């Protein structure tokens, strides 16, 4: 059960869903309503950055070198004609 804090009150997902279902879809828009586009950093983005921020992964030099080494090893193995799809190196060619 997720809970949200709105105006210092705790609202559960069930209560929020109940409010949404009870709302009138044909109600007029309030005069003080703020357009959603004014809250978005990038107008071409599908979602604003505050909605689902990117994970905070650190890109250390060691992590990049290990990843580059794994990719390079797989490329070299593939060029040599050895299949490592199932985890056990097997030659692709027949003797």
Describe the 3D structure.
With 95 residues, this protein is α+β, with helices and mostly antiparallel strands. 31% of the residues lie in helices and 13% in strands. The chain has two helices and four strands. The chain has helices spanning 13-22, 61-79, and strands spanning 3-6, 9-12, 82-83, 90-91. A two-stranded antiparallel ribbon has the order 1-2. Strands 3-4 form a two-stranded antiparallel sheet. A hairpin with a 6-residue loop joins β3 and β4. The longest helix has 19 residues, at 61-79. It is elongated, with a radius of gyration of 26 Å.
Spatial extent as radius of gyration: 26 Å
Number of distinct helices:
2
Mean model confidence by pLDDT: 78
Spatial order of the strands in the main sheet? 1-2
Shape: elongated
| Measured distance between first and last alpha carbons | 61 Å
List the helices and strands and how they pair.
Elements: E1 3-6, E2 9-12, H1 13-22, H2 61-79, E3 82-83, E4 90-91
Antiparallel strand pairs: 1-2, 3-4
Essential attributes:
elongated, two-stranded antiparallel ribbon, 95 residues, two-stranded antiparallel sheet, alpha+beta
Quick overview:
The chain is an alpha+beta fold and 95 residues long. The protein contains two helices and four strands, in the order ββααββ.
């Amino acid at each position: 059960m997720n809970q949200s804090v709105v105006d210092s009150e705790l609202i559960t997902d069930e209560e929020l869903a109940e409010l949404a279902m009870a709302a009138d879809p044909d109600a007029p828009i309030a005069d003080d309503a703020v357009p959603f586009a004014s809250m978005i950093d990038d107008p071409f983005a599908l979602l604003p950055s505050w909605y689902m921020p990117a994970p905070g992964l650190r890109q250390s030099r060691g992590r990049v070198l290990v990843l580059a080494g794994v990719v390079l090893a797989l490329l070299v193995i593939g060029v040599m004609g050895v299949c490592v799809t199932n985890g056990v190196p097997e030659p692709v060619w027949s003797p």
